[in-house]
Each structure stands twice: as C-alpha cells, then as structure tokens.
Specification:
Length: 94
C-alpha cells in the first residue's frame, strides 16, 4: 500500500537537493552577485515556519528535511552578505 508519507519525504529530499547547487556554486565561486538576498530571507523565514508547523503537527516528513533546507538557506544568506561585502571592499580599492 502506498503511503502519503512517502510523498512528503520525497518532496523534502527534493527541497534539500534543490538548494545544494546554489550554495555550492556561491561558495566555490566566492561570489553571490546574482543571488537575491530578499528571496533567500523570505525563503528562510518560510522554512522556519514549516519546521514549527511540522513539529507542532508531529510530522517528521515536514520538519526533518526543512531543518536541512533551513541550514542551507542560512548558509546562502551568510555567503551573500560576506561576498557582497568583499566585493564592495574590492570596488573601493579600484
């Protein structure tokens, strides 16, 4: 019998995987010039709310993968701030 929980876990895994390439590219290239910080801040907030909802409703298929996505989102925001700051410093020196 097919369980609806499988759909939740698959969706969570896809969400986790979908963020990984962007975070990796930003870290590898040491640049986040084309990344929208507003979008990532909104997404980070949304993910945090999904985690809270998943915990309250006792649905690990929601809160477990979103915890990983939250970590990746926060990492992306930190990298964006860091690399934008470094870009501004380099621009002032030029």
């Amino acid at each position: 019998m097919f369980s609806y929980k499988i759909i939740g876990y698959v969706a969570g895994i896809i969400s986790m995987i979908s963020f990984t390439p962007q975070v990796y590219k930003t870290w590898k290239m040491k640049s986040a010039k084309d990344v929208s910080i507003q979008m990532f801040i909104l997404y980070t907030t949304s993910t945090l709310l999904w985690i809270i909802y998943g915990i309250i409703s006792e649905q690990p298929a929601i809160y477990a993968p979103n915890t990983v996505v939250l970590f990746l989102s926060i990492t992306q925001v930190i990298l964006k701030i860091k690399y934008d700051s470094e870009d501004r410093k380099r621009s002032k020196k030029s």
